Amino acid sequence: MSAFDITVLQYLMAYGLPVISVVSLILCITKHFSTMRNKLLSRLVSSFDTSYERIMVVHKKNLFLPLHDVVSSDWKLKNKGLIRIVEIGFRTGENLKYYPKNSHVIVVDRNLYIHSYLDSNPGLTNNVSIEDLFVSSEWNLEPIADNSVDAVVGTFILCSADRVNLVLSEIKRILVPGGLYLFLEHCSEPLDTFLYKIQNFLTVTKLWPMLFDGCHLNRNTLQDIKFAKFSDLDYQYITVNNGHNKFSKLMRTHFIGTAVK
């Protein structure tokens, strides 16, 4: 064995194993990053929803109250006094308890583990009937027929939609004439505020969207809802102070309301 071969062998023995180990670790993390992030996100969402729900009870009761007066356009459901609701962004199912009893619910959610989540929480859906469930990263409503649902519920979905106008257009498509779109969204602060600068920085650097499933802090999607030209629109701004969750300070301003097709 030549002196050069011996030198190469020594370098490989000294540095080869650490380099290979580091590269293998990077490849492993890269391969499983999406799974790890989804699981972490599920835990964060669950923690956030638990603390958030306590301070939103009154607002949500008022938001969902009109559902109890809806008469279904589906004659089979109408004869039974039931309605059909599409919920976009099911999250932890925190909205179900506000729905009329035995409502037929079609779930559209990004969570890849939504089926196992529902299986491990069977009591969650006791109040309703899950008619169908679609997992879609883009809030895809294509499988749902035109003019087929009495109400659409969307809470914190437009902040992460790639094409907000398309989502709103699809909501209008699947709603029956006179159907309700009930929304609750957080929005950006005024452009001249320091908080907006922080929101914008965290969004444009992709830090916040990467950690929180595409969420954009610098959006005010109420303008998109207005441009969607629903026949009627009723909304209000609210300020949410959740002292139990530090992240909530970055999205303290919300708008909540209903739109009619």
From TrEMBL:
Arranged from A to Z, the UniProt key words for this protein are:
Membrane, Methyltransferase, Transferase, Transmembrane, Transmembrane helix
Q: Where are the transmembrane segments?
A: 12-33
Question: Do you know which InterPro entries this protein is assigned to?
Answer: Methyltransf_11, SAM-dependent_MTases_sf, Thiol_S-MT
GO MF entry, a single one: S-adenosylmethionine-dependent methyltransferase activity
List residues of the Methyltransferase type domain.
87-183
Quote the Pfam families the UniProt record gives.
Methyltransf_11
Q: Is Nucleotidyltransferase given among the entry's keywords?
A: no
Species whose genome carries this gene: Zootermopsis nevadensis
Single Gene Ontology BP annotation: methylation
Recorded protein name is Methyltransferase-like protein 7A
